Amino acid sequence: xxxxxxxxxxxxxxxxxxxxxxxHLQREGYSAVGAANGLEALELAAxxxxxxxxxxxxxxxxxxxxxxxxxxxxxxxxxxxxxxxSARGEEIDRVVGFExxxxxxxxxxxxxRELLLRVRAILRRGPAGDEPTDGVRVYTAxxxxxxxxxxxxxxxxxxxxIPLTATEFKLILTLARRADRVQTRGQLLxxxxxxxxxxxxxxxxxxxxxxxxxxxxxxxxxxxxxxVGYRFRREPE
Length: 237
Fold this sequence. Notes:
Strand order of the largest sheet: 2-1-3-4-5
Oligomer: single chain
Number of domains: 2
Largest sheet: 5 strands, parallel
Number of strands: 11
Distance between the termini: 28 Å
């Protein structure tokens, strides 16, 4: 997965927060633009195809969760990483954020340095178009149509790179590292989302469905173990 060329889109109705974040991002060398509401954010996203969206949950008119849903529904923005911001730190708010497709969740108040670290981590990718070379770790059987390059954060199907969000890549990598062993939904919640394993949520299933759709015929490597969780098969049956 490669870093996209578009600007970082900061969506927050509080002018001070939005402008400070844009300033810090620009000081770090990123191109950044702002939107004060959800409709403006969707318009800018459709026009600019941002590299990442920093999205406030509590927006006037159109809430951040709906903005995230619409971004995920459009082909041009479905793979754009989203960091959700919220003054509400309750677990249910984080769950809702992840279920609509957010890649990360930051609770207000936060430091600009913390957010920049999260932005940098999500955007840290290998050079665009590069095929994996030295240091590649492939977690599939020889001759498989699916290849996973862990150091470069790339996934290939039939030699073509598949654009995944940071969360989707972490999900398939977690499964592949434990190939042929069943991973419960609770284990995946804890490992991928840093959420309590006993949480009653469809976060894992929602992201797994989206991941399988992107993997096309290589999705046969991911097996559903009914009532338990998922397993990555090196050699699918």
